[in-house]
Amino acid sequence: MEDLRQSSEWASYMAKIGWEVADLGNTKAYIRKIPFLGSIIKIPRFNDLYLLEQIDTLAKKQKAFAAKIEPNAEIDSEKVLRALENNGYYLDNWSFAPTRTIRVDLTQSEDRILANMKKETRYAIRKAQGLNLESRIMNNEEGLEEFINLYKQTAKRTGFWTGPIKELRLRWEIFSSAKKADLFLASQGPALEAGAVVFYHDKVAYYYHAASSESGQKLNAPSLLIWEIIRAAKKRHCLMLDLEGIKDSRIPSTKNWEGFSRFKKGFGGQEIELNGSFSKYYVPLIGPLFRFIQKLGI
């Protein structure tokens, strides 16, 4: 399957925030100029490992000082690791896309998906269903503004970084215009308790942005929403739900992800660990400097 970040919609988003898009066969590479250094190339979640020579050619053309790539391959793929090491790539301790995630198989029946969940998660869904929580898809400007307000509140309460809100709006605009996005909201009366932005690509649903109120947490509104997302994705004939990231000990920036990693694991999906994120440096002095900084954990 082609990853969300290799879709034409994602390429459109990247172009609008200042990245040049280059096609390497069926793979999209994103290029950005960095003052005084040259340019950087990033290639997220790509499937074709025979591109390494083409990446070098592109780097030369773009006067790139580095290429950062994230193969869409699982951790046990020794062939991937050998190919990368032989071509001068180093394993990084930071990434653009999650390097570990949970994927729920949507080809199963709803009953089987429920049975595979942890009992605490099934209980949370049933409890939320009995509390008069209303879940709905609201793909309009009003719904987006409600979600963004809750998203900001959630970030303030939990201390997580949202990234630029204007980029969230842009992603939503592009994917929703292509009918490849849904905005799920859960309310009790007039109060919005939880929300989630889901993107779709190549028969996979991506649980990309999520927010909840403190009271929504107590009402188990996030659990109910994921259950409704599963049901809606099945109706779209998706084969998989990707819960978009859990804690990875290789990536220090995920050290505070324990809470929502535990939450996501409750849905009974398969834990996927990808090979990781790799960089190759084309300017002799920059490589050793970046690797030294990486070892210091900076």
Q: Assign the CATH superfamily of the largest domain.
A: Gcn5-related N-acetyltransferase (GNAT)
The outline comes out as globular
Helix and strand pattern: HEEEHEHEEHHEHHEEEHHEHEEH
CATH topology of the largest domain: Aminopeptidase
β-strand percent reads: 25-35%
Family: Belongs to the FemABX family.
Protein name: BioF2-like acetyltransferase domain-containing protein
GO molecular function, one term: aminoacyltransferase activity
Keywords: Acyltransferase, Cell shape, Cell wall biogenesis/degradation, Peptidoglycan synthesis, Transferase
Structural summary, described in words:
It is a single chain. The protein has helices at about 10-15, 50-60, 80-85, 110-115, 120-130, 140-160, 165-175, 215-220, 220-235, 260-265, 285-295, and strands at about 20-25, 25-35, 40-45, 65-70, 90, 100-105, 135, 180-190, 190-200, 205-210, 240, 270-275, 280. The chain is an alpha+beta fold. It folds into two domains: about 5-100 and about 275-295, Gcn5-related N-acetyltransferase (GNAT) (Aminopeptidase, 3-Layer(aba) Sandwich), CATH 3.40.630; about 100-275, Aminopeptidase (3-Layer(aba) Sandwich), CATH 3.40.630. The strands form two sheets. A seven-stranded mixed β-sheet has the order 7-8-9-10-11-6-12. Strands 1-2-3-4-13-5 form a six-stranded mixed β-sheet, sandwiched between helices. The longest helix has 18 residues, at about 140-160. The radius of gyration is 20 Å and the shape is globular. The model has no long low-confidence stretch (mean pLDDT about 95). GO terms for molecular function: aminoacyltransferase activity. InterPro entries: Acyl_CoA_acyltransferase (IPR016181), FEMABX (IPR003447), PG_Glycine_Bridge_Synth (IPR050644). This is BioF2-like acetyltransferase domain-containing protein. Keywords: Acyltransferase, Cell shape, Cell wall biogenesis/degradation, Peptidoglycan synthesis, Transferase.
